[in-house]
Design brief:
- The chain is of the alpha+beta class.
- The chain contains 15 helices and 16 strands.
- It has a nine-stranded mixed β-sheet with strand order 2-6-7-10-1-11-12-13-14.
- Helix 7 runs parallel beside helix 9.
- The protein starts with 5 loop residues before the first strand and ends with a helix.
- The mean pLDDT is about 95.
- The structure holds adenosine-5'-diphosphate (ADP), magnesium ion (MG) and zinc ion.
- Adenosine-5'-diphosphate binds next to strand 1, strand 10 and strand 11.
- The site of zinc ion has 8 residues, from loops.
Length: about 475
């Protein structure tokens, strides 16, 4: 009997911390890493009688995020109390938006090697974060840190438009790219500034109705998102194949055990008893404000990628890599301009520059060679003053030292050898020392010419002009034994 194939259906709820200096309803600092409970006041501790006052900057960043996701910002949105009890929620309710969110109905589109993708956004709303429970003493007591309490978040809810764990992970990286590019979020998932809840169900291939979904809470890395979804899809598929039904529930990703575990089932689902927050007026956003925020939006990653591909003649994959962040785009474009050779500049940025950054565990913000300096090195190569392989040595010497390419070439004798007489000497020696390769070449094996070129390059420390070496070798070898 053939088993029916199942199709996964995935929708994400993403929480992103808005980059304000102060919390959403009080003046406490949002800075990460302070001593526990260093940034608290009666408002964010939820003391009776303390009144929230909305942070205008949080609304502005929320509008910016919403516009970057193609959402429609609502002229009027309303804060509500979402009531539940939890130790890290001292008020007994979270202030969030429910019936009337800040923004609705957007879409994120992006191109991939496997085709074009579009993920629709249902809504984006503002809310406050809760505090943090720190379990200690092997689980026998818990500490509470309220520094996070009242930090502004935007929650972004997608339609269930994603169809595989890897697609979900890629979408999440795209979303992160958008939010960081427009400067509303720092993208720091380790510190919890960006996290996501993944909703997933399966259905028989070809079915259009949605299956029963499971929500996996609080995934704070692309990898965990993907692995939790893979695990959950397998678990649901096995459940259905065993003739049982998937239960609607909320689960957690257990990193150590690499599996999802049940947190609560539908039976104990919360009734949050939402009602409008009486201490805050509705949020009014004028068209003029929306227009002002829109006009200040920077180029978004997907548009930037397409522009790089078009303007510099790069492949889709290359453009995507260079458009990965603001900083890498800026670096590449500056190097392309300084070198007058975008093609080669792209190779350097994706090659040596990326390799060095990787090796050092650095990112392009702290790169050790300025794009202008790299541009001048590329010009030396293009002018024939340095060979491509010697240029890599020059680059290493430049890195982090502030030294100039031209100066290094001169001081370290790295100039390209384009002197025919000098090279001919080396070529003659290499031919004499490599009988085997020489006879193979004469026997018609073109590949052994590459070997001989390599020997000449090696003998000159990579400084020989490869074109000239090629020509000299061919000439010498065709001259008979
Ligand atoms: P809830 O009321 O349980 O919060 P929502 O309808 O608000 O559910 O949807 C929450 C998230 O779950 C959204 O991202 C949505 O796309 C996703 N979702 C809803 N139904 C399904 C389903 N059957 N399978 C997968 N994801 C779903
Ligand atoms: Mg929901
Ligand atoms: Zn406070």
């Amino acid at each position: 009997m053939t088993e029916p194939a199942f199709e996964p259906v995935i929708g994400l709820e993403i929480h992103a911390q808005l980059l304000t200096d102060t919390k959403i309803f009080c003046g406490c600092s949002t800075r990460f890493g302070a001593a526990p409970n260093a940034h608290v006041c009666p408002v964010c501790l939820g003391l009776p009688g303390a009144l929230p006052v909305l942070n205008r900057r949080a609304v502005e960043l929320g509008i910016r995020a919403a516009l970057a996701l193609g959402c429609t910002v609502q002229a009027r949105s309303v804060f509500a109390r979402k009531n539940y009890f939890y130790p890290d929620l001292p008020k007994g309710y979270q202030i969030s938006q429910y019936e009337h969110p800040l923004a609705t109905g957007g879409e994120v589109r992006y191109a991939q090697d496997d085709g074009d993708h579009a993920v629709r956004i249902i809504r984006a709303h503002l809310e406050e974060d809760a505090g943090k429970s720190l379990h200690a003493g092997g689980g026998d007591h818990t500490h509470l840190d309220f520094n996070r309490s009242g930090v502004p978040l935007i929650e972004i809810v997608t339609h269930p438009d994603l169809r595989s764990p890897s697609e979900a992970a890629v979408f999440f990286t795209r979303l992160r790219g958008i939010l960081t590019t427009v400067g509303v979020n720092d993208g720091n998932m380790e510190e919890g500034s960006l996290r996501c809840d993944a909703n997933v169900s399966i259905r028989p291939a070809g079915e259009t109705a949605l299956g029963v979904k499971v929500e996996v809470k609080n995934l704070n890395s692309f990898r965990y998102l993907q692995r939790a979804l893979e695990y959950e899809i397998d678990r649901q598929t096995e459940t259905v194949r065993a003739g049982r039904q998937v239960e609607q529930e909320t689960r957690l990703w257990d990193t150590a055990a690499s599996r999802t575990v049940s947190m609560r089932s539908k039976e104990d689902a919360h009734d949050y008893r939402y009602f409008p927050e009486p201490d805050l007026p509705p949020v009014e956003v004028s068209e003029a404000w929306v227009a002002e925020v829109r006009s200040a939006l920077p180029e978004l990653p997907e548009a930037r990628k397409q522009r790089l591909a078009r303007e510099y003649g790069l492949s889709d994959g290359e453009a995507a890599q260079l458009a990965d962040s603001d900083a890498s785009t800026r670096y590449f474009e500056a190097a392309a301009a300084a070198s007058g050779n975008a093609r080669v500049a792209a190779n350097w940025v994706m090659g040596e520059v990326a390799r060095r950054l990787n090796a050092d565990g650095d990112d392009i913000d702290s790169v050790g060679v300025s794009p202008d300096a790299l541009g001048r090195l590329i010009r030396l190569v293009d002018a024939g003053a340095v060979s491509g392989s010697a240029a890599k040595t020059v680059f290493e010497r430049m890195y982090g030292t502030g030294r100039e390419a031209g100066e290094i070439v001169e001081a370290e004798g790295l100039a390209q050898i384009g002197d025919e007489e000098r090279l001919l000497e080396v070529v003659t020696r290499v031919i004499a020392d490599n009988d085997d390769a020489v006879s193979r070449f004469r026997g018609g094996n073109q590949g052994s010419l590459g070997f001989l070129v390599g020997q000449v390059m090696r003998a000159t420390g990579g400084r020989a002009n490869p074109k000239l070496v090629n020509a000299l070798l061919r000439r010498s070898l065709s001259g008979g034994p």
